[in-house]
């Protein structure tokens, strides 16, 4: 019997604002679409947290024995700067500034995106389509929307008539908006746009002569609107009606709202049963921003080459830290928080190592079945990873009691317990056991700390030539020293 038949999963649906029992459209199968990155810059930590949330959701569906088709797109055209319909494409702008072909920009940052996600142990999606690979599909959807009377062409561009659509549908129900309020809070059109209404959004934009990225269409040489690509790719690979659509909270309006409108205008039915939105990540209590310096890239966490953290941290420690908060909660990233997470992560890994040495007994004094169900109950409650982690630390207590001989498990119960611990830690949460190379790490750490002490003594003795020599030779070996108030730390 598949696991999903024994577990009742509840998911918070952004569309209803309530937790609902998950019922797939096709029994035993899940179709899930998640909005992927716009590849014009290095993937930032907030992106990683969002995609990690859906990686865990994907993993849990697989653990429950569902067959999952997980589609996550790459936006490589059509995303206008500031998410408006007027202006320059983000990728085209980057290409112009760096004097590159747009597809060079796309390739560079797509590779970076994959490298980072691989480092953080993400499972790849089932399908990873690109916007530029689905121009034909997007043009066909535009034709259908025009034929259904909701799209209109103006000077080579095509727009979606939100006011007309709203006469028979509710534009704004996902984000809790209504069209009357939106119209009341916008200024009159000033004649510099072809839109009939301020809320109308572009389905196709005519390319200006200087615009590099362009394709032929029945209306003009141009490019598709940003919202259209996800409608085209989600319906192509998951059908007009599928189970789950996810993304960051910032995409709820206008992006996801426009997707719903496009689908309903095209097919006459609502496209998605469950809308899931992951919340944002802050840094030291403030919004992350390159302009203020309150920013850190995922790669900088792993290398320690930053001014935010006291040292480098492994990908699994960073992953463990992020999963200590529920995906719908705001999470604040700080040095103190990740240092504490590292201690917890090491406790968990050490316990799993100890568990392998426990000797079974003729009777059990711990109810393993109840503990296992508590782990499932956590994940069944809208993928509540922090509660799951709390239950895993209950498991750590069991391991310590078993190891001390204060509790006992039969051979069958011990096997079931260890199997469940490993499944939730490694398969569902996606953590990796980094203790495999701990002995080598310990030797390296001891050697470098000895050299750090020698360097300190050299500096105390004003032998700066020797101090600099030690530092420079460590740098040549790929070991970076960082001097701080608390002393000197290093990263590899």
TrEMBL record:
<keyword id="KW-0963">Cytoplasm</keyword>
<keyword id="KW-0479">Metal-binding</keyword>
<dbReference type="InterPro" id="IPR032678">
    <property type="entry name" value="tRNA-synt_1_cat_dom"/>
</dbReference>
<keyword id="KW-0648">Protein biosynthesis</keyword>
<dbReference type="Pfam" id="PF09190">
    <property type="entry name" value="DALR_2"/>
</dbReference>
<feature type="domain" description="Cysteinyl-tRNA synthetase class Ia DALR">
    <location>
        <begin position="374"/>
        <end position="437"/>
    </location>
</feature>
<feature type="binding site">
    <location>
        <position position="35"/>
    </location>
    <ligand>
        <name>Zn(2+)</name>
    </ligand>
</feature>
<dbReference type="GO" id="GO:0008270">
    <property type="term" value="F:zinc ion binding"/>
</dbReference>
<dbReference type="Pfam" id="PF01406">
    <property type="entry name" value="tRNA-synt_1e"/>
</dbReference>
<dbReference type="GO" id="GO:0004817">
    <property type="term" value="F:cysteine-tRNA ligase activity"/>
</dbReference>
<feature type="binding site">
    <location>
        <position position="255"/>
    </location>
    <ligand>
        <name>Zn(2+)</name>
    </ligand>
</feature>
<comment type="similarity">
    <text>Belongs to the class-I aminoacyl-tRNA synthetase family.</text>
</comment>
<feature type="short sequence motif" description="'KMSKS' region">
    <location>
        <begin position="287"/>
        <end position="291"/>
    </location>
</feature>
<protein>
    <recommendedName>
        <fullName>Cysteine--tRNA ligase</fullName>
        <ecNumber>6.1.1.16</ecNumber>
    </recommendedName>
</protein>
<dbReference type="GO" id="GO:0005524">
    <property type="term" value="F:ATP binding"/>
</dbReference>
<keyword id="KW-0067">ATP-binding</keyword>
<keyword id="KW-0436">Ligase</keyword>
<keyword id="KW-0030">Aminoacyl-tRNA synthetase</keyword>
<comment type="subunit">
    <text>Monomer.</text>
</comment>
<dbReference type="GO" id="GO:0005829">
    <property type="term" value="C:cytosol"/>
</dbReference>
<feature type="binding site">
    <location>
        <position position="230"/>
    </location>
    <ligand>
        <name>Zn(2+)</name>
    </ligand>
</feature>
<dbReference type="InterPro" id="IPR015803">
    <property type="entry name" value="Cys-tRNA-ligase"/>
</dbReference>
<dbReference type="InterPro" id="IPR014729">
    <property type="entry name" value="Rossmann-like_a/b/a_fold"/>
</dbReference>
<feature type="binding site">
    <location>
        <position position="290"/>
    </location>
    <ligand>
        <name>ATP</name>
    </ligand>
</feature>
<keyword id="KW-0547">Nucleotide-binding</keyword>
<feature type="binding site">
    <location>
        <position position="259"/>
    </location>
    <ligand>
        <name>Zn(2+)</name>
    </ligand>
</feature>
<dbReference type="InterPro" id="IPR015273">
    <property type="entry name" value="Cys-tRNA-synt_Ia_DALR"/>
</dbReference>
<dbReference type="InterPro" id="IPR024909">
    <property type="entry name" value="Cys-tRNA/MSH_ligase"/>
</dbReference>
<feature type="short sequence motif" description="'HIGH' region">
    <location>
        <begin position="37"/>
        <end position="47"/>
    </location>
</feature>
<dbReference type="GO" id="GO:0006423">
    <property type="term" value="P:cysteinyl-tRNA aminoacylation"/>
</dbReference>
<dbReference type="InterPro" id="IPR009080">
    <property type="entry name" value="tRNAsynth_Ia_anticodon-bd"/>
</dbReference>
<keyword id="KW-0862">Zinc</keyword>
């Amino acid at each position: 019997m598949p696991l999903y038949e024994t577990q009742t999963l509840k998911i918070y649906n952004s569309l209803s604002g309530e937790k609902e029992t998950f019922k797939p459209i096709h029994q035993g199968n899940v179709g899930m679409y998640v909005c992927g990155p716009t590849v014009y810059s290095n993937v930032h930590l907030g992106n990683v947290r969002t995609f990690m949330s859906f990686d865990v959701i994907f993993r849990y569906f697989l653990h429950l024995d569902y067959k999952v088709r997980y589609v996550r797109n790459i936006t490589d055209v059509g995303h206008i700067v500031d998410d408006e319909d007027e202006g320059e494409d983000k990728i085209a702008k980057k290409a112009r500034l760096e004097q590159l072909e747009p597809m060079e920009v796309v390739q560079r940052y797509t590779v970076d995106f994959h490298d980072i996600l691989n480092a953080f142990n993400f499972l790849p999606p089932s399908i990873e389509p690109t916007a530029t690979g689905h121009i034909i599909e997007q043009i066909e959807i535009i034709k259908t929307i025009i034929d259904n009377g909701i799209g209109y062409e103006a000077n080579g561009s095509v727009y979606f008539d939100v006011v007309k659509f709203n006469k028979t549908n509710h534009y704004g129900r996902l984000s809790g908006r209504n069209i009357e309020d939106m119209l009341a809070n916008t200024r009159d059109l000033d004649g510099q746009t072809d839109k009939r209404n301020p809320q109308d959004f572009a389905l196709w934009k005519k390319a200006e002569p200087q615009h590099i990225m362009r394709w032929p269409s029945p209306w003009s040489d141009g490019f598709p609107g940003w919202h259209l690509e996800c409608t085209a790719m989600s319906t192509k690979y998951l059908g007009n009606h599928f189970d789950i659509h996810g993304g960051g909270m910032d995409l709820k309006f206008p992006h996801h709202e426009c997707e719903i409108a496009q689908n309903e205008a095209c097919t006459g039915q609502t496209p998605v049963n469950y809308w899931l939105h992951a919340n944002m990540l802050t840094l030291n209590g403030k919004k992350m921003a390159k302009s203020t310096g309150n920013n850190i890239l995922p790669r900088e966490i792993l290398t320690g080459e930053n001014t935010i953290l006291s040292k480098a941290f492994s990908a699994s420690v960073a992953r463990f830290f992020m999963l200590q908060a529920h995906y719908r909660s705001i999470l604040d990233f700080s040095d103190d928080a990740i240092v504490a997470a590292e201690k917890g992560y090491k406790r968990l890994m050490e316990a799993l190592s100890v568990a392998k040495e426990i000797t079974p007994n003729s009777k059990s004094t711990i109810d393993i079945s109840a503990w296992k169900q508590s782990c499932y109950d956590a994940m069944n409650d809208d993928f509540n990873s922090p509660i799951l982690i709390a239950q895993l630390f209950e498991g750590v207590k069991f391991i310590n009691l078993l190891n001390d001989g204060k509790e006992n498990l039969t051979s069958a119960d011990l096997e079931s317990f260890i199997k469940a611990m490993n499944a939730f830690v490694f398969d569902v949460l996606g953590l990796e056991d980094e203790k495999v190379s701990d002995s080598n790490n310990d030797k390296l750490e001891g050697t470098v700390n000895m050299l750090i002490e020698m360097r300190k003594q050299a500096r105390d003795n004003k032998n700066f030539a020797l101090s600099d020599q030690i530092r420079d030779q460590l740098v040549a070996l790929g070991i970076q020293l960082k001097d701080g108030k608390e002393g000197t730390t290093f990263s590899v």
